[in-house]
Amino acid sequence: MYELYPYFTNDGSVGLYSEADNDIYHSTYGALTEAYEKFILPAGLEKFFEKNSEIKILDICFGIGYNSKSFINFFIENTYSDTVYTDNINSSTYNGKIYTDNKSDKKFFNIYIKAIDIDKILAFLSPFVICNKKNLPENYKLPFYNDKISKMLNKPAANYIKYHNSINFLFYEKIVQNYPEILKNSEISKILNSKKYRSFFEADICRLFSLDRKKRSSYTPLRPLFAFLHNIYYRNLSNRYKNDLKAFTNVLFDFDLKLNDARKELLYDNNKYNFIFLDAFTPAKCPALWTLEFFKLLHEHLDENGMILTYSNSAAVRNALINAGFYVGKTFNYSLKKFTGTVAVKNKSLIKHDLSEYDLGLIKTRAGIFYRDENLTGLNEEILASHRKEVENSNLISSSKYIKEYKKQVEEV
């Protein structure tokens, strides 16, 4: 069976550990919080919603869907909620809804999200994953052994996000609609029915999935009964989420999940996106989606006033983005009170925080040598080997020497 290593992070959302890479996909202080702080809040979405009714998002490395789901959650909060989030989470105040319950005031939106991932099982599991588990045990322990992660758990989380469970229902509907084969996927069924993983999934959506499977199974004498039970349960569930999804009565929402290598997928994509969430695994282990050539491909797909957001603050990544034709800045995390990510744009005025003199200097060191993938077909191992060779043969100053000299200059000033 497909092996998962899930655990609850400190804001009640589920994080994943990769045994193969011996690394985590999500921060232990909060997987949902991390999505907000690195991709949603720095995007300035509340202002974008006021000026635009058509929104196109490209979510690269969708995984279990936190970035896309956080966007929809943010949209709901900023259209019908009494609280509007800003990039400074400590000063989140109500500043007016985009539209109200008055029909004449309502604004219609056209939201298109293209999500790409090569891991079909993870993507199919995305609508089932719990995003706001409440009342976690005070001394919560991992369901698998990992001393490093255990030590990072049970620390204070921002925990300021109200997550609408209806969003999982919304994404479930879209995935089943576009990929009906999910209902016949025995691996998904085994995982959802396993006692080992049960606590990490939404019971309502799991129950709906089970009824959907039986409803669409090959004919048995009980099939009409299962269809009847499904319809009753679906109606009750949709009614329960109706108020939550009130915003979507005025939204044309299209969720397009592609199970493919992002490099291949984008070669045949003619869309221009307003926001690109680049959430690929760390460049040092999986560089294929961090190369100069891939960023040039993203440049073709970004709207003139669009924005690429990523958690990476790597000098090599920033240098590749600059060489691909972007203006590059950085994102500030208000809860951690430090810069934690990177933003790339075509319109320089959209950058809120410029790269510092230190950042620009680091780009000119060996640490700034970017990854290359000339034909957009290279394997990670090949890209890493080629990059390693280029760094070894470089005459550029090492990053460690540069940092030492920079600190010395600062002390002397």
TrEMBL record:
Coiled-coil region list: none
InterPro entries associated with the record: MnmC-like_methylTransf, SAM-dependent_MTases_sf
Database matches in Pfam families: Methyltransf_30
Signal peptide: none
Gene3D superfamilies the record matches: Vaccinia Virus protein VP39 (3.40.50.150)
SUPFAM superfamilies associated with the record: S-adenosyl-L-methionine-dependent methyltransferases
GO molecular function, one term: oxidoreductase activity, acting on the CH-NH group of donors
Protein name per its UniProtKB record: MnmC-like methyltransferase domain-containing protein
Lineage of the species this protein comes from: Bacteria, Candidatus Scatousia
Residue intervals of the MnmC-like methyltransferase domain: 248-345
